[in-house]
Fold:
Amino acid sequence: MESATQTFQHRSMSVKLWPPSHSTRLMLAERMTKNLTTPSIFSRKYGLLSNEEAEVDAKKIEELAFAAADQHYKKEPDSDGSSAVQIYAKESSRLMLEVIKRGPTVKDGEIADKTTVLHETVFDISGGRRAFIDAEEAEDLLEPLRELGNSYTRICFSNRSFGLDAANVAAPILSSIKDQLTELDLSDFIAGRSESEALEVMHIFSSVLEGCHLRYLNLSNNALGEKGVRAFGALLKSQNNLEEIYLMNDGISEEAARAVSELIPSTEKLKVLQFHNNMTGDEGAIAISEIVKRSHALEDFRCSSTRVGTDGGVALAEALKTCTHLKKLDLRDNMFGVEAGVALSKALSLFADLTEIYLSYLNLEDEGAEALANVLKESAPSLEVLEMAGNDITAKGAASLVSCIASKQFLTKLNLSENELKDEGAILIGKALEEGHGQLNEVDMSTNAIRRAGARLLAQVVVTKPGFKLLNINGNFISDEGIDEVKELFKSSPDMLGPLDENDPEGEDFEDEEEEEENAENENELESKLKDLKIEQGE
Structure:
């Protein structure tokens, strides 16, 4: 009985990778449509498919690939489904390549143009030069919004600086249409104004728009700080249907983050939350984590370049455990460290629909990177973008990354630049990309102390991928002969190889130099001690 219980517990805790969710299947079809309509060396030879034709072909490819993989899975229903995922990816890549080489079957002009009259629903004055607008110009610019019966649902005032006179012109106009608005972009709309004037302008906009039913709100690039956030208090507190909110480059400090958490009453429908480039810090991140905890529908979370350290990183990691629908996660350029990296790894297993993850410059080191890679290997089967640049990952840490990368057959972009992988790590990564990975289009392994062998293998692997666009191996220690070999491999498609102007053929590994210096110092010290050593003889 005990043995049977243990077996049941083991099975209930295992992660099933097959079958993929409906959203994952749709996502794959969308990705293939994009690949089929993106110019490449193949499209130059065989022709480029129209979007309509590509959509039809992508749907057929996905259905055929799914059927083949599902048939395989039924033969081993007790497995975790990883082999079925591999077949699903490889069959998709194979069929996609067939379609690419077949080329378009519909001639230009056979499909009627489909035009969308955007001007009827979108009012956008962000084009043109970045400038102040006065009352007279505001009257002219906003005139279309006065028209009776207009159907504008989205307005964008970005890139134009509103002073008090222009704001007072805009106020009654916005008040008259606020009930029809669903999307509001006020990013960068008070540039160059004094603090007092900017705050008053924000109060005016907030008051007249209070009670509108927005799904999208962008207040980025306004240096809000806590005062600015509270100036928008009336608008924020009246929102119960927000799906997207952007507060990037807004001076969101600890106090401002607390104000945001306090003023947004409902996040039940929130799908996108972005706080890029703020001075949030650990305490601010803890306040943001309270918003994240309440946002169970969140699909896209960005908290990059926000000065968050270990404590804030751990708080965010814990909060993200409630966001099981997450598709895109961007935490780049913070000071998480190993502890926060390990904490984050415990949340990643919950993100079955994750397609993009950006974890560069987080001080993860091998331990943090290994923890994350080990979890990612068993989750996020549809991952397309993996970035872990600038984390001091060595060849030792690459071993775990290899297993993870090999399992991610839908990868389109891999960025491991500015680490310490060297030839050993680069070769391991290259080997992991050999099988399948038919949708891969960008690999960045720059600044990794890679030499000739590693560079050659990476080039050999990616140059054969259909739709591949860019290999970046700049800033390494590749010999002149190695450079020639790589260029020869890309001679038919030189645009796919990034610049090599920062490569140093004579490059030395600083760690090796430090080790040699340390050994030399130890030898000198030992010689010194031996020279002064006196051997005492017993009486």
Observations:
- The longest helix spans residues 51-75.
- The two ends are 77 Å apart (CA to CA).
- The first strand starts at residue 122 and ends at 124.
- Residues 1-13, 108-119, 525-539 have pLDDT under 50 and may be disordered.
